Amino acid sequence: MLKLSPRSRSLVKLTLWAGVLTWLVFYLASGVVMAQRLANLGSDIFGGGIRGDILHWVAPIWVVFTVLLTVVLVSRYVTKKLGRR
Hints:
Blueprint: H1 6-40, H2 42-46, H3 49-81
């Protein structure tokens, strides 16, 4: 295994964290934009009636919930792997 100095190890961790945080922010932003589009196009996509009204309300919340859950799980995984060593 390659031995890194503490400074090199810190630089690698900083670079990896910057990449992961950038991905997390853009993934969250894309999820919010997708939820807004679903909310705006809800009646066209889901149709009318009670089923369409429920899906029009639930679908954007479900998208944001799923994106937030993914962000939390990825950040926990990365924290474990890049933790303090």
